[in-house]
Amino acid sequence: VQLVESGGGLVQPGGSLRLSCVASGFTFSRFAMSWYRQAPGKERELVADISSGGGIANYADSVKGRVTISRDDAKNAVYLQMSSLRPEDTAVYYCRTFWAPREYWGRGTQVTVSS
User: Fold this and answer.
1) Rounded to whole angstroms, how far apart are CA atoms 39 and 42?
2) pLDDT per residue as tens digits for the range 5-52
3) How confident is the model over 40-71, as pLDDT tens digits?
4) Measured distance CA(81)–CA(47) in Å, rounded
5) Are 105 and 4 in contact (CB under 8 A)?
6) Fewest CB atoms within 10 Å of the CB: 17, 23, 71, 95?
7) 19 phi/psi in degrees, rounded to 5
8) Which long-range contacts (CB under 8 A, 24 or more apart) does 47-56 make?
């Protein structure tokens, strides 16, 4: 299993970014996918997750209304569209899936929101 994130970078407050995670090594369409983030000195936290098939998505309260998770099973990819970014969104963003009995993580992509 391999998860590779991309799309991070430096953005000004109020700006937008689209993160991508491309998966391989498993039947992507059968698995729920998640985005997590970890800010310096803080624990890793769930940002959003999406069910297999994409019919159900859940968001952390801190990002609701500003973030949209989506997936493209034909491309084995999951996306995180972020807008109205704030300095407190600065973190490393990770893609995750769970295939019993273990979870799998990407290496992350850095998002920095700063003027």
Assistant:
1) 5
2) 999 999 999 999 999 999 999 999 999 999 999 999 999 999 999 999
3) 999 999 999 999 988 899 999 999 999 999 99
4) 11
5) no
6) 17
7) -95, 145
8) 47/80, 47/93, 48/80, 50/78, 53/29
